[in-house]
Design goal:
Blueprint (H helix, E strand, L loop, with lengths): L1 H32 L4 H6 L14 H10 L1 H33 L2 H13 L8 H11 L4 H25 L3 H9 L4 H12 L1 H17 L2 H6 L8 H6 L10 H22 L1 H9 L5
């Protein structure tokens, strides 16, 4: 029986390893083509660089120079860090209130958060762009509020499941000892929510870092550009694209989020499992 289970384990490992290669292949293809002359990228897309096609880091240097990528990287970091921090603080506190209060307003709020998860972005993107301009939210820090609105549904849903599994006795003991509500939350509840907080932070960071449409619709392009928008500006007139520079810039934007994910991936399963409780 153990031998049969071991054989099946190796079989599933081989199958999923082969499937994982399909997901990794596009990234490998981008890395390979980032070292080729732009003329040969479309002519020999799947071939490795050779003495004729290899150009070293020229594509990277040209892409950074043409897009001002370093400044765009800075604005992307500002948007991502600020938005993720705001989402984590606001949604975790809101989920704690929903679970612990359990009255009619909290139930209605929870249903509204769930409803926000099923509303397609395409339904609201044009009114959103107009309202963002009217309210002065067309800045990187204005995007924090917009991302909070779009990311709160899933986060509240996950955090409510986590908080339902936390023992309330510890919170009651802290309040009996004189701890205020904010102190109880930040010193008692937040440490117990750490796996789910890190898990949500990873998912939200990957979404916001790679997002193109929301910054493109709302940001003032004369002053601010995220990395994804800056790369899009490599497209010239009549559909001409500097594919070499674009591939180099794509690799540079992929590296930080891949490193971040690999560093924090162990928390994802723990965080999602923590929320999988019967409520």
């Amino acid at each position: 029986m153990k031998r049969e289970q071991l054989r099946h384990g190796w079989l599933w490992t081989a199958i999923f390893s082969a499937l994982s290669l399909l997901w990794i292949f596009p990234i490998v293809l981008v890395v390979i083509n980032s070292f080729k002359n732009k003329i040969y990228i479309s002519q020999s897309t799947f071939s490795l660089p050779n003495s004729t096609t290899f150009v070293g880091f020229q594509n990277y240097a040209r892409g950074i120079r043409r897009t001002n990528l370093l400044a765009s990287f800075g604005w992307t970091v500002v948007v991502t860090v600020g938005a993720v921090a705001l989402i984590l603080v606001c949604t975790s506190m809101c989920a704690w209130w929903i679970v612990r209060v359990r009255n009619l307003p909290s139930r209605i709020a929870y249903l509204l958060f769930l409803f926000s998860m099923i509303v397609p972005f395409q339904m609201v993107m044009f009114p959103l762009s107009k309202i963002a301009d009217m309210l002065g939210l067309n800045t990187p820090w204005g995007l924090w509020i917009l991302y909070l609105g779009f990311g709160c549904g899933m986060c509240v849903f996950m955090f409510t499941g986590v908080i339902k599994s936390l023992p309330m006795d510890i919170e009651e003991a802290a309040m009996i000892d004189g701890a205020s509500v904010p102190r109880t939350f930040f010193t008692i509840v937040v440490p117990m929510m750490k796996p789910s907080l890190v898990s949500v932070a990873i998912l939200e960071t990957m979404w916001i870092w790679n997002d193109f449409l929301l910054p493109y619709l709302t940001l003032d392009m004369r002053r601010y550009k995220t990395a994804s928008i800056a790369i899009q500006y490599l497209k010239g007139g009549y559909g001409a694209v500097d594919m070499g520079a674009m591939m180099g810039c794509l690799v540079l934007t992929i590296i930080p989020i891949v490193v971040f994910y690999l560093f924090c991936q162990k928390y994802i399963i723990a965080g999602v499992t923590a929320g999988a409780v019967k409520g």
